[in-house]
Amino acid sequence: MNEKKIIQISLFLLAVLVTISSLYFYKIENLRKNKTFDKIKNKNNLVLSEDKLNLIKDISYFSKDASGNQFQINSSSASTNIDNANIINMKLVIAKIIFLNSGTIYITSDKAKYNNQTYETNFYENVKVIYLKHQITSDNLHLFLQNNTISMTNNVVYKSPDSSIEADIIEIDILVKKLNIFMNDKSKKVKALYNN
Q1: With contact defined as beta carbons under 8 Å apart, do 131 and 105 qualify?
Q2: HSE of 128, CA atoms in CB hemisphere, 13 A
Q3: Which residues pair with 71 in a beta bridge?
Q4: Which residues contact residue 159 at a Cβ distance below 8 angstroms, ignoring those fewer than 6 apart?
């Protein structure tokens, strides 16, 4: 064979090899992209599974202060917060502040964020507080056990046997059972109705 034919056959085989290699790597790249997509889908499913694994049913926390007053919070389901492991996201929440000598404050809400280090709790959605014959509803309630205070905001309605009050904010000192009721805008007045 002459040298010219060998070069032509070699170039032809090289072209075929390059074409086959290109097709092969093109298919591999497409498969890899599809696999990556599947991995992303699977990863999302795994994240959902991790959330389900992170879900705790019927959870309860309990604490007691030096005076013997107790705080208990229960939830039908809860999960730890992804950004802060100390925060517990709760659903269908019932909390009790049990005073050694003066009754119990009951707090219920659809949802709450509970800090298991500071015991600070943010209740939200359909919040209700009941103490003896007093009832307060609002959209939000912030419980600061370390300061012995409750702050209720947004659509606050206080009801007792002899009165009904609508306001923007109610702050409660839970040790002395003192209420401060006011509006965000000082030019507006708290609405109060008294039963005769």
Answers
A1: yes
A2: 11
A3: 63, 97
A4: 134, 135, 136, 165
How many Å apart are CA 80 and CA 57, to the nearest integer?
12
Q: What is the pLDDT of residues 131-184, one digit of tens each?
A: 989 999 999 999 998 888 999 999 999 998 998 999 999 999 988 888 898 898
What CA–CA distances, in Å, run from 148 to 47, 124, 160?
Answer: 38, 19, 22
Torsion of CA 130, 102, 68, 74, to 10 degrees: -20
User: pTM, whole model, 2 decimals?
Assistant: 0.70
Which residues lie below 8 Å from residue 52, measured CB to CB, with a gap of 6+? none
The first and second tokens of residue 62, run together, are: 């309990």
